[in-house]
Specification:
globular; Rossmann fold; two-stranded antiparallel sheet; alpha/beta; 9-stranded mixed β-sheet; 11 helices
């Protein structure tokens, strides 16, 4: 009967969109807002160091762990869990708390342009005293408990985490009543160069099997694929890279060693060509469904020194949109500018 009702059923476009958005909500945050992402997609955010990759992940995490509504106030969150795998071992939990507090205070009618500093206790004391923009500590604690964090110091710990993650996600879903919506990996290439310098990764003991660089990537992809079958999620992974000769708009060049066997890839960014080295094994490259390139902008350098914010450029290379977004990072998060 249920199948027959589904076949014979009819719904308007508004009802269909409401159902789809409830089951698989969009992630309408810069720079992800250009492409409709769904659970099962694997999105790679690629860029050199200090290009706001982790900042982009944290903003997405805040939007995921916040509820849609709380005590009659609209926050626009997804109210789901986030699993954050920190391979870079430089995650700043205070920054995540800062972003979450900004979203809570902003939704309650405060001035979102306030530059909050973790040492500036007076600002938050004033916010707590103001009844119209009261800081909801219960909401903050409830949201932070939806953020699940694991730190891995090498590839073997990363593999062990992936193999046990299915059981943990099941326990977290039972405990919180909601599932994990986003799996974040920061950053997927953190151990690549260390593993490449080693001939093999020993699993311990003289009779144990050793893992090569290629087999590690194959196991990572296989474990994530198995995980997605049981726990459908959106996968967001950052990847550090070094951009090539045409990266800098100020004219500086970077030469590559002939010993580097990595693939040199070129994408067109407006009137400019950007080159970067793709070093991850093909098994991971074929696993990625979407890719975003981010980098610091050389535009308005003099103005940036006076404005207390950084400017970045993001572009979708897969699928190729041939469109640049200009982003700024402030205390309240990542914003697009014209």
């Amino acid at each position: 009967m249920a199948l027959k009702a589904w076949i014979n059923g009819d719904e308007s476009a508004k009802e269909m969109l409401g159902r789809v958005l409830t089951e698989r909500p969009f992630l309408l945050l810069p720079p992800f807002h250009r492409v409709p992402l769904r659970v099962g997609n694997v999105v790679e955010v690629v860029g050199p160091s200090h290009s706001a990759k982790t900042e982009i992940l944290m903003q997405a995490a805040v939007s995921c762990i916040l509820p849609k509504e709380w005590n009659g106030v609209h926050y626009g969150g997804l109210e789901h869990l986030v699993m954050f795998l920190d391979l870079d071992c430089r995650f700043d939990i205070l920054r995540l708390a800062q972003l979450l507090k900004h979203r809570i205070v902003e939704a309650n009618g405060s001035n979102s342009n306030v530059n909050w500093d973790e040492n500036d206790v007076g600002v938050w004391e004033d916010i707590k005293k103001e009844p119209k923009i009261a800081y909801d500590e219960d909401l903050f604690s409830t949201s932070m408990r939806r953020f699940l964090y694991v730190r891995c110091y090498n590839s073997l710990e990363f593999l062990a985490t992936l193999k046990t993650l299915c059981h943990r996600l099941q326990k977290e879903r039972e405990a919180h009543g909601v599932s994990v919506h986003i799996l974040m990996i920061d950053s997927i290439g953190a151990f690549y160069w260390v593993d490449r310098a080693s001939t093999s990764l020993s699993l311990g003991g003289t009779n144990r099997k050793s893992l090569s660089l290629q087999s590690v990537s194959e196991i990572v992809v296989m474990e994530i694929q198995k995980l997605l079958l049981v726990h459908p999620m959106l996968v967001l992974a950052t990847k550090p890279t070094i951009l090539g000769d045409n990266y800098s708009t100020s004219g500086s060049k970077r030469k590559w060693s002939s010993q580097d066997s990595s693939d040199l890839r070129t994408v067109t960014s407006g009137s400019q060509k950007l080159s970067y080295r793709e070093y991850m094994p093909p098994v991971w490259q074929s696993f990625v469904t979407h890719r975003i390139l981010v980098r610091a902008s050389d535009d308005d350098l003099a103005n940036r020194r006076h404005q207390n914010y950084s400017i970045y450029l993001s572009e979708w290379s897969f699928p190729s949109l041939n469109f640049l977004d200009k982003l700024i990072v402030r205390d309240a998060g990542v914003f697009t500018v014209s």
